[in-house]
Design a protein that fits this description.
heterodimer, A: alpha+beta, Alpha-Beta Plaits, five-stranded antiparallel β-sheet, 44% strand, elongated, B: alpha/beta, Rossmann fold, six-stranded parallel β-sheet, 18 strands
């Protein structure tokens, strides 16, 4: 099962390697990882989506992360009210003939074309994982040539 | 001051009296500063020896052990010793030279990404990029190494940082926002634990290295005696409870006593203190102690419920928590019937060996125990020698049994003995070795002789890599694949270094040889030619439940 956790960490070189190294050394799986600086430039915020078969493994992951000296706090969103989003860029086949059909779909998912050139358009969408999945299903009829996703980012209330 | 001078000044302020190491190109400025420093420096013959010596010093004294090596191969040679300290939670600060900051990443001569290499085997590590950060980093390194669950910390210092001039500012306090160990047990959890203890019928204290780290041996003895609960130790826990005490069951696990294993398997309450339910202790996990509730006291939250599910977790320092429990428990449970059952196991399955024929290794260790009146510091190598040292010497004080528990590093015992002797010069220090293990760091004979470090080494020489041979005998149809050893003449070898050597091949010579070794003011190798195919029993085959012991003796 997938769980979203966040880590506030020291914004220093090597910290990402410590986190990634911990996951690989202990055999945990990262489904996605997003890292950025926070308002305080000495602190980075990581949103980590982990694969954990059971509660015990999730607990271990959190405890092991907490043991890292450069980790300031860990938040587990599993039982916490929160919002999460991911951003995608998708390059789809584009023709004037199907423009309206495409735009109807995009409107429904609050997605938009940010650029089109010749027979391809790059689409941007932001949403929860389920919405993004539905959008991609809907877009598949046009033919998706390329897809890039950010990892999930999450924030608690 | 230069970075190197700041380093030495900081080491002095941290109370470092002795350090172990080996010079090289990228630590020349540090060695130049060491030349005038009033810190005792022990020049080893291989960097691995320096790391193990610092580790042995730390285990014997409770202080932080310090080792130093140059960049590249010097640093990578330290890594086995660092990993060893990490697995056993030993406070060590390792200092390595690094190529100049502007060369880092250029595949410079003797460059290795040492913070990268040691990331998974240190509690924390630092690469110093500016001498201005050096004093703070050294303070943090000693603080991190010695607090919470201790462990090794590495400081990688490029040689230009060692030469950089800057103002020395000693940070008065250390504050690390991501590092706040818990020291006192949660009162609610203490109450719950106390209740479980007073209601238990078949309780057992299962205690590990945490007792020794936190200095909780008196509290443990107090709790065991107040509640009449028997005590079993892990390998790391030996010495944390008197080996001669009537409530003591010896070590448990793969080569533990049969009665300790039966007791933990039959218990209804396990009080685990500073131990981590390692696979060598639990055997087959799903069959481990099926009827027991578990109270787990540990300073490392990640150790709790890692391998076994725990009913009452208590995070904190063992000494504090056992003190809290002693106060909370007014009256212990009635364990009379339980202790009688254990007594019958002790009678039925005693720890024993068949004497006769060639010298028995168990006999050698019994004789070392008697000759040293149980007051020596024993270090061990890894394998059969280590297990016999666990079984046949009774440790009555903390920090007297020094052995590579988690990593199982052959070649640990001899340099660790050096470190222990330097930390505790008034103590007799005996390394119990095998003929295989001793050759893994035998070069430290030169270090011992040159620095007049008087340690005794008992080589239990069976001409085999004994423990592997034992497994081959039992599980691989006696196909002794590459476990028979050609050995040097250990007596001549010791003598060629200026140490003393004694060969013993008859039982009646064992005790006189030990007495003679103790009377010589020098490092002594005693080469005991023992029964070549003697096995360590009892033995739980890997993956079996720990009450399914082999040996016919259990």
């Amino acid at each position: 099962m997938r769980h979203t956790i966040s880590a506030l960490v020291e914004n220093k070189f090597g910290v990402l390697a410590r986190i990634a190294g911990l996951f690989s050394a202990r055999g945990y799986n990262i489904a996605s990882l997003a890292v950025s600086e926070t308002l305080d430039p000495s602190v980075s915020y990581m949103t980590i989506v982990v694969e954990a078969e059971d509660e015990k493994i999730l607990e271990q992951i959190k405890k092991q992360l907490n043991k890292l000296i450069d980790v300031i706090t860990i938040t587990d969103f599993t039982k916490k009210e929160h919002v999460d989003r991911e951003l995608i860029l998708a390059k789809v086949n584009y023709s004037a003939k199907e423009k309206n059909k495409l735009e109807n779909i995009l409107n429904k998912y609050l997605a938009k074309i940010i650029q089109h050139k010749g027979d391809a358009a790059i689409i941007e969408a932001v949403g929860e994982q389920a919405q993004i999945r539905q959008l991609l299903e809907a877009l598949s009829q046009f033919g998706i040539k390329e897809l890039v996703k950010t990892g999930r980012i999450a924030m608690a209330y | 001051m230069t970075g190197a001078q700041i380093l030495i000044e900081c080491l002095k302020r941290e109370g470092v009296e002795v350090m172990f190491g080996y010079p090289g190109g990228q630590v020349l400025p540090i060695f130049d500063a060491l030349y005038d420093a009033d810190i005792k420096f022990i020049l080893v013959r291989h960097e691995q020896g320096a790391a193990h010596a610092a580790d042995g010093y730390a285990r014997a004294t409770g202080k932080v052990g310090v080792c130093i090596a140059t960049s590249g191969p010097g640093a990578t040679n330290l890594t086995t010793g660092i990993a060893n300290a990490y697995m056993d939670s030993i406070p060590v600060v390792a200092i390595t030279g690094q190529v100049k900051t502007f060369l880092i990443g250029n595949d410079a001569f003797q460059e290795a990404d040492v913070t990268g290499v040691t990331r998974p085997i240190t509690k924390h590590n630092f690469l110093v990029r500016d001498a201005k950060d050096l004093a703070r980093i050294i303070r943090e390194a000693f603080y991190i190494a010695s607090t919470g669950r201790p462990g090794p910390v590495l400081i990688d210092i490029p040689s230009d940082v060692q030469m950089q001039d800057t103002e020395f500012i000693w940070p008065e306090e250390v504050k690390i926002r991501g590092y706040n160990p818990t020291y006192f047990g949660h009162p609610g959890q203490i109450k719950k634990a106390a209740k479980l203890i007073s209601q238990a019928k078949r309780p057992i204290l299962y205690t590990g290295g945490g007792i020794i780290t936190s200095g909780a041996h008196l509290e443990l003895k107090g709790l065991a005696e107040k509640t009449n609960i028997p005590v079993t130790n892990t390998l790391m826990g030996l010495g944390g409870f008197p080996g001669t005490h009537e409530l003591f069951l010896g070590m448990l696990g793969m080569h533990g006593t049969a009665y300790a294993n039966h007791a933990i398997m039959g218990s209804d309450l396990i009080i685990a203190v500073g131990a981590r339910f390692d696979d060598r202790v639990t055997g087959r996990l799903d069959a481990f102690a099926p009827t027991a509730k578990i109270i787990h006291i540990d300073i490392d939250p990640a150790s709790i419920s890692k391998n076994v599910k725990v009913d009452v977790p208590i995070v904190g320092d063992a000494k504090n928590i056992l003190g809290q429990l002693l106060e909370e428990i007014k009256k212990g449970p009635d364990t009379g019937e339980w202790l009688a059952t254990i007594e019958s196991w002790k009678k039925k399955y005693p720890l024993t060996y068949k004497d006769g024929g060639k010298i028995k290794p168990q006999y050698v260790i019994e004789q070392i125990y008697q000759a040293t009146k149980g007051e020596a510091i024993i270090t061990t190598e890894v394998g059969q020698n280590q297990m016999w040292a666990c079984q046949w010497y009774k440790y009555t004080h903390p920090r007297t049994y020094i052995s590579s528990g988690g990593l199982g590093t052959m070649g640990f015992g001899f340099p660790a003995a050096m470190g222990a002797k330097l930390g505790c010069p008034e103590k007799i220090v005996f390394d119990i070795a095998g003929d295989g293990s001793i050759q893994m760091n035998i070069q430290e004979l030169a270090t011992c002789v040159a620095n007049k470090i008087n340690v005794k080494v008992a080589i239990l020489n069976n001409g085999y890599l004994g423990m592997v041979r034992q497994w081959q005998e039992l599980f691989y149809k006696k196909r002794y694949s590459y476990t028979k050893l050609y050995n040097p003449d250990f007596v001549k070898l010791a003598e060629s270094y200026g140490a003393a050597g004694i060969r013993v091949s008859k039982k009646e010579e064992v005790r006189p040889a030990i007495e003679k070794a103790l009377s010589i003011d020098n490092t002594v190798f005693i080469d005991f030619h023992i029964e070549p195919e003697e096995n360590v029993y009892p033995m739980v085959p890997a993956g079996e439940a720990i009450n399914r012991m082999l040996g016919g003796l259990a």
